[in-house]
Amino acid sequence: MRQFILTALLTAALSLSAVSLEEMGGVYYAYPGAPDSVAIDLPAGYKPFYISHYGRHGSRWLTSDGKYQWMLDYMDGQELTPTGQNLRDMMDIAWGQAQGHGGELTQLGAEQHNGIAHRMIGRFPEVFPDSARVRAKSSTVGRCMMSMAAFTEGLKEVNPSLRVTREAAARDMAFIHNNSDGLLAIRADSSEWQKTYKAYRAASVPTERFAEAIFVHPDQAVEVDNFMEEFFWLAESMQNVGLDLDFFQFFTPEEMEAVRRAIDYRQYVVNFQNFPDALGPGPESAKNLLRRFIDDADSAIENGLPAADLRFGHDTSLMQLLSLMDLGIAPSTLTDPVAIDEAWPEHEIVPMAANLQLVFFRSPSQPDAILVQILLNERPLGAPTPWAQLKQKFLSRV
């Protein structure tokens, strides 16, 4: 009964805001779908002819079996309260389903990409006439390759004649999922920023009640803030893997909010932040990817035939690309965690299966006056923009 009350209180507290329990997962939020129609305000006569795309893999299990095993080992090293034993028993159920699937795409993840593909070809059929060229490239990570397969299968379910090529090559990782030297440096546990982050998390995430609820000797539970964060991910991952296990009940609203805020702060600084005087390490990592967008678009425009370039990768790479493109989805120069929390709707930007689509339009009467509509998660970002103007802006960033 106490656990039911905790969950009810948590749900009630979150209902006062616009963020649901699942949305609090940020990058673990399962793709919510998109409207059946996308209204694009174009001059008369303009038709789509090319799409340039980057998609994050769909819903998955936790990134590795080691994530589950670490939590189990952590709990097994402590004497548990009755609440803690209940949590441990539930984790056994989750681990029984997850073992051997760490990092893999789930069925829901495949369905997400299949659905996005169906909507893309339904909204922009002119890009996918018979025998149109579709080139798909993926990260060499399995969940991304499976996402690519589900997406291209969705396109061919609508038009089997499409000439689809699929590739997952190590050489393409330099643009699909690149890590600059600066990014590797800031991610390192020994970096000054990581030390700052860990100090912030320790000071901002309340651990006392949680530890007392789970462990008989909470004072002996070292690294409990790490455990809370990993457990937070486990709770949020249930929406992606099809398991009806309520791990939210073990948190209070304040604990959920504090863990979420700390995670969003880290994601923003490491992957999205663009310092006022120079590129941050995240945006810097996306330069090769943005250059590929430019070059592939120019080739498609020169070729003149309907085509699509599809790329499948990871949430961090998409965050970095969005920051580098400077699309106005969030301020990119914030430093205060509270300000970041208010301005960074991570679940709207990079949920599972998040996707960026640049749709190119032209008119037979003005073949060189090409317009581009940018869609984030299948929703328009602003009005169509002349490609010449957009390209100039992008070139200044790479």
Task: Write a compact overview of the structure shown.
This protein has 398 residues and is α/β, with parallel strands linked by helices. It has helices spanning 2-15, 65-76, 82-98, 107-123, 142-158, 173-176, 181-187, 192-204, 208-214, 224-241, 253-272, 281-285, 287-303, 315-325, 337-343, 346-349, 387-395, and strands at residues 47-56, 133-138, 163-167, 307-313, 355-363, 366-376, 379-380, 385-386.
Q: Can you tell me about this structure?
A:
- It is a single chain.
- This protein has 398 residues and is α/β, with parallel strands linked by helices.
- It has two domains: 32-60 and 104-178 and 286-398, Rossmann fold; 63-103 and 189-277, no CATH class.
- The chain is 50% helix and 13% strand.
- It has helices at 2-15, 65-76, 82-98, 107-123, 142-158, 173-176, 181-187, 192-204, 208-214, 224-241, 253-272, 281-285, 287-303, 315-325, 337-343, 346-349, 387-395, and strands at residues 47-56, 133-138, 163-167, 307-313, 355-363, 366-376, 379-380, 385-386.
- Strands 1, 2, 3, 4, 5, 6, 7 and 8 form an eight-stranded mixed β-sheet that branches.
- Helix 2 crosses helix 10.
Which structural category fits the helices and strands? alpha/beta
Number of strands: 8
CATH fold descriptor of the largest domain: Rossmann fold
Helix-residue proportion = 40-55%
- Following the backbone from N to C, one meets helices and strands in this order, namely HEHHHEHEHHHHHHHHEHHHEEEEH
The major sheet is characterized as: 8 strands, mixed
In CATH, the architecture of the largest domain is: 3-Layer(aba) Sandwich
Q: Uncertain regions: pLDDT < 50 for 5+ in a row?
A: 1-16
Could you tell me how far the N terminus lies from the C terminus, measured between alpha carbons in angstroms? 57 Å
Q: Name the CATH homologous superfamily of the largest domain.
A: Phosphoglycerate mutase-like
